[in-house]
């Protein structure tokens, strides 16, 4: 294995919070606010079967932060993921990057189109 490959394996996945802020035009304070909102939302998760709590937050263009958490039911594995709950709550204002954090606090950033590449809207429906 080359030195470059070893260095790439040692580098953590995701962006630092500072890089995330710069890449997506967010302030470091906004990224911190989103991270804290994810952690807070995670505490609201209903996951009695998997015990795997997930929180999600979205910063709307008006500055409001929308939170969501995963919800499981007895028809496991049927449940609702945190991202879906949050997007469903904020569906009218999604002109923003979606930040996802892992258990180590590392983030991945996606657009709604990247997260839901096969989604469709009214233009895809048949009209009479």
From TrEMBL:
A biological process (GO) of this protein is:
nucleobase-containing small molecule metabolic process
The record, for CDD domains, names: cytidine_deaminase (cd01283)
PROSITE patterns per UniProt: CYT_DCMP_DEAMINASES_2 (PS51747)
From the UniProt record, which GO molecular function terms apply?
cytidine deaminase activity; zinc ion binding
InterPro entries per record: CMP_dCMP_dom, Cyt/Deoxycyt_deaminase, Cytidine_deaminase-like
Ranges where the CMP/dCMP-type deaminase domain occurs: 29-128
The entry sums up its family as follows:
Belongs to the cytidine and deoxycytidylate deaminase family.
Return the protein name: CMP/dCMP-type deaminase domain-containing protein
